[in-house]
UniProtKB/TrEMBL annotation, chain A:
This protein's UniProt keywords: Kinase, Phosphoprotein, Phosphotransferase system, Sugar transport, Transferase, Transport
Pfam families for this protein: PTS_IIB
The name this protein goes by in its record: PTS system IIB component (Fru family)
GO CC annotations, alphabetized: plasma membrane
Source species, domain of life: Bacteria
GO biological process: phosphoenolpyruvate-dependent sugar phosphotransferase system
Listed NCBIfam families: FRU
Keyword Kinase in annotation: yes
Natural source organism: Pelolinea submarina
Molecular-function GO terms, alphabetical: kinase activity; protein-N(PI)-phosphohistidine-fructose phosphotransferase system transporter activity; protein-phosphocysteine-sugar phosphotransferase activity
TrEMBL record, chain B:
Cellular component GO terms held in the UniProt record: plasma membrane
GO BP term, pick one: phosphoenolpyruvate-dependent sugar phosphotransferase system
Any Pfam family matching the protein: PTS_EIIC
Transmembrane segments: 20-45, 57-78, 98-117, 129-151, 214-234, 246-266, 311-331
Lineage: Bacteria, Bacillati, Chloroflexota, Anaerolineae, Anaerolineales
Coiled-coil portions: none
Location in the cell: Cell inner membrane
Name of this chain's protein: PTS system fructose-specific IIC component
Species annotation: Pelolinea submarina
InterPro entries, sorted: Bacterial_PTS_Sugar_Transport (IPR050864), PTS_EIIC (IPR003352), PTS_EIIC_2 (IPR013014), PTS_IIC_fruc (IPR006327)
């Protein structure tokens, strides 16, 4: 399954990156592929293109602050979490997101 | 975006967005002000010269704190058109003396007002006038009404009450405040509870009271630093993988990034969290007892020389670290062989 995700947090220096790392680790060794965009204090890193978002089967936001350039996600079913819970258990985040998206 | 979040969840996210854009202003402003004091003494602003200039630059940055907060809260709610109206709402809050609280409410007001205006159905020939004329003009007008005639009075009053309460806190009250603040900061290490406590320190800073910020530093730095000490001293309490993370914990402790402690807390929350909470609570309470204050909202060990009593602050930090590590020694069971084996599989 193709997954795209956005992570962000209030200070944008630690949580955003840790959530991204946790998500990337969580899909390792599974059938899923993931690309994670980090919206941190330095701006947007690893930016998702409109096409990548359109092609994704599952869109996850692990965010604490408003997502930048939201219009890219128009029409997609976005499943939202906090970065915090994602860091603690990203595998659970992905399982829950799939359930919520009905996949 | 079909997945609806609760209204309060949304509000929290908007406030967080505002805080996240505000922090750089407070960092630059707070540290420059502290440098000005360090170079020119406590009456630096009375004698023209370079130190007074540095102090003045810091003041400019810090005065943008509440406008930036309100502006980006409104941005989070209403997107780009919210920014201008939000900034104006924040400036109004600043001028009124309703401070951080006024800025938060002003930003929310501005955001929802702009969002509502955006949804007005206008003839297509007027569409292009929306962002350049109608939204800013009508938005600022409505926000002005709200801030001046509705929110201004009561919020300014409330703000002053909070400021006085903070200033007049006596021994026992300070200790309780420190214990609660410290425990909150360590409770979820950068999560929502932690950020609520951090927002309290920022709000106090806006009232020119930097005591809570000093407590915030100690309580935010001691979880990773205390865990680092425990990793070094009590090797049998941790798995080999956990021990490899010691450098991250040291960096997190020195740079005030509490989040580095998360993996340890996540692996064993019931034993690790009480330990870090006790350490942070003790550290924060002691910070109040010794009347520490620090005019910088972030920067870890690197800005401690700017504290009012740097050596005392280091001592309190050291105590908090030792208490955290000591609590870990008491609470955390030894790693069993089967756990270690499970890891290597």
């Amino acid at each position: 399954m193709k997954i795209v995700a956005v992570t962000s947090c209030a200070t944008g220096i630690a949580h955003s990156y840790m959530a991204a790392e946790a998500l990337t680790k969580a899909v390792k060794g599974t059938e899923d592929e993931i690309k994670v965009e980090i919206q941190g204090a330095m701006g947007i890193e690893n930016r998702l293109s409109k096409q990548e978002i359109a092609d994704a089967d599952l869109v996850i936001w692990a965010v604490d602050v408003g997502v930048r350039d939201k219009d890219r996600f128009e029409g997609k079913n976005v499943i939202q979490f906090g970065p915090y819970e994602t860091i603690w258990d990203a595998k659970k985040t992905i399982i829950e997101a799939k359930e919520k998206a009905g996949l | 975006m079909a997945n609806k979040e609760s209204f309060f969840g949304d509000i929290r996210k908007h406030l967080m967005t505002g805080v996240s854009y505000m922090i750089p202003f407070v960092v630059a402003g707070g540290i420059l002000i502290a440098l000005g004091f360090a170079m020119g003494g406590i009456y630096v602003f009375n004698t023209p010269g370079f130190p007074a200039d540095v102090f003045a630059w810091g003041k400019v940055a810090i005065n943008l704190m509440v406008p930036a907060l309100a502006g980006y809260i409104a941005y989070s709610i209403a997107d780009r058109p919210g920014i201008a109206v939000g900034f104006v709402a924040g400036m109004m809050a600043s001028n009124q003396g309703s401070g951080f609280l006024g800025g938060m409410l002003g930003g929310l007001l501005a955001g929802y007002v702009v969002k509502a205006i955006k949804q007005l159905k206008v003839p297509s020939m007027l569409k292009s006038l929306m962002p350049v004329l109608i939204i800013p003009l009508l938005g600022v007008f409505i926000v002005g009404l709200g801030m001046t005639y509705v929110l201004g009075g009561p919020v300014t009053w409330l703000n002053q009450v909070v400021a006085q309460a903070l200033d007049s806190l006596s021994g026992g009250g300070k200790i309780v405040l420190g214990l609660v603040q410290g425990a909150m900061l360590a409770f979820d290490m950068g999560g929502p509870v932690n950020k609520a406590a951090y927002a309290f320190a920022l709000a106090s800073a806006e009232l020119d009271n930097w005591g809570p910020m000093a407590a915030n530093f100690i309580a935010s730095m001691s979880p990773p630093a205390g865990i680092a000490l425990a990793l070094y001293l009590f090797k049998d309490r941790w798995t080999s993988v956990e021990r490899e993370g010691i450098s991250g914990c040291i960096v997190g402790g020195l740079a005030m990034i509490t989040e580095f402690a998360i993996p340890y807390a996540a692996a064993d929350p019931l034993h690790v969290l009480p330990a870090t909470m006790v350490g942070s609570a003790v550290g924060a309470a002691l910070s109040y007892v010794f009347d520490l204050s620090l005019t910088a909202p972030h920067g870890g060990l690197f800005v401690i020389p700017l504290a009012n009593k740097p050596l005392m602050m280091l001592l309190v930090f050291a105590i908090a670290i030792v208490v955290t590590a000591g609590m870990l020694f008491i609470l955390k069971p030894k790693v069993t062989e089967s756990e270690e084996e499970a890891l290597s599989m």
